[in-house]
Known about the structure:
Oligomer: single chain
Helix content: 25-40%
Structural class: alpha+beta
Radius of gyration: 21 Å
Order of helices and strands: EEEHEEEHEEEEEHEHEHHEHEHHEEEEH
Amino acid sequence: MKPLLSRILPILAATALMASCSESDAPATGASEGERTVLVYMVAANSLGVGGNINGENINPADEDDIAEMIRAAHALTDGRRVLVMRSTYSVPPTLYELKAEGLKPLRTYDETESVLLPEVMRGIIDDARELAPARHLGLVLWSHADGWLQGTEPDKGPQRSFGVDRSRRMSLPDLREAIDGADLEYLYFDCCLMASVEVAYELRHTVPYIVASTSELPRPGMPYDITLPMLLDGAPAGITDAAASTYGYYRDHINPVYRTCTISVVSTDGLDDLAAATRAVYDSAPLAHPLRRATNYNGISNSGYHLDMGEYVLALADGRDAALAADFTAALDRTVVYKASTDKIWSQYPVYHDSGLSTYVFTRPDAFTVKGYDTLAWARDVVATHIKDKQ
């Protein structure tokens, strides 16, 4: 989520917004079922959980700013609509809170020696949210840093992550799938960077019906919760689409030109199997080489092909080869990406030539298939493997 515009050292900062608690603070179970609970899973034991001077600007920790936004939107907490926040920082142990008009009420504290990015810990906290705020529908917001599908460790770059940074712990995409599989989520909203990739969506396609995410980096402020929280409480698909559109409008019209950058998509995971079949048909008939002279690179400054626009790439492969394959792919993509929006440029520098609502990994050498653990992903095995099989 929200990249830092410069590197800063972690600062252990106390916060006035929270206080630690114990399980004795938890309410009695057996509460009546409401209509909807939203759980914001705030992993802030990283640069987003500290403040300081960044690029000459004195800023608050991003988690504190977002919590303040949530409190301003607490008027939306009508009967049957509740918001829980799991917050973990350098100075606050992992704690599950309930949002109230007067602030955050602690419900349960967890062992801070166990990372909140372990699949079993995340799933346990999701289950606790269901127990403490039972509801017909549960929406999950994942808040932290993220790198899309990237995973593994490189000696010269250190640990990589798919979702989250919790001190030294990162969460891989397969681990995330394990954590939410069977949790019966209404939607998954990534308030973090680069998670609107087809690799991410396909990996999670059987775990949740709707995913909201950004193909590019999000500015540090992230989602404007004072605007979007009531929409998240309206559920899927209408409420989360409104929240995505409002987030886009917030950044498109931001008073600070540095923050006038945003890409955001709403994905219906029901369409992903058809999209995989249509993409595989194009890949199997096309050369491995990238056919574009220019490409939309959602990672901006990176020269890698980790996050290029999916529709732009696949349609370029199909161009002049088979119009029917291209039409099938476009139809499948339209059924999958039910909302998308992007500014003309990312960070006012990097053009968005084509916005399909999903990114993908694009490589030109078969040996790149295993880079950063790509070959461990379901999309790589089901779709891309045949693309490189006869080209080695």
